[in-house]
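Fold this sequence, please.
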Amino acid sequence: MNESVSNSRGPSPLSRGIRTIGLVIAGFFILVLGITLLVEAIPIGNDSNIALIRIEGIILDSQEIIDQIEHFTDDPTIQAIVVRIDSPGGAVVPSQEIYAALKRVRDDGGKMVVTSMGDMAASGGYYIASASNTILANPGTITGSIGVIMEITNVEKLLDKIGLESVVVKSGLHKDIGSPFLPLSEDARAILQHVMDDVHDQFIHAVAEGRKMGVDQVNPLADGRIFTGRQALAANLVDRLGTLQDAIQVAADLAGISEEPTVIEAKPRFSLQDFIRIQFREALYTITTPAMFSLKYKFSL
């Protein structure tokens, strides 16, 4: 009877203590195993790592790419950066910001920057590429398009047809410049052209500096025309013809890597919300910017 009551009270303090110690020991070994696997997965001390950064689609924002550039620049295991560009360009300022970030890496000299051009690396895409130590293009890559464009759609006649009138109240003579509801005056056109010429000049000087060419050498190429990769090579806008794999090998050679390089690429976690936001933003940019006051380093077919 007493034995039955004793058993019903559960394990003794000694048994509970032994079980606790066992769980602690098991947890310790699991933790050690997890850390070991994690350490084995991270290429610590590897001197053959090359970072791959992809710039794809219309360039509307620079922050994500700049974050990747800064991350890989600060990583001592990364010996060189390869930038894969497949873009028609986009907004002026993001293109300039990415160019500046890559140029800082190149000028610092700690890591080589190599650009690989895909189907297209035009306008703002080429602007960014020109910050590299070396540029590779495929023979059929569409590149160049060194120029600036501003598109303004005038809907004044459409408003007349449907019986609508635009009323503007302004405090400055040219405050409504570029309005889609008003005809573009000669004075307004001259002002906009002056702005365009200055932004175009910034593009030309960036290419001249990045490619180590004289401004007088870039000027004849900077009328907005496009080039194939092979034509760009002849014009000194790219350094070599080759694929992405060729660009990775060139980066390895420039970094003094003698073995097969390990390519490290940032893999952002997929977010349906971000995907929808990006797609919507690109669609909105494509649809609305012709009717808005906007400067673009962008090539359009």
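The chain is about 45% helix and 15% strand. The first strand starts at residue 49 and ends at 56.
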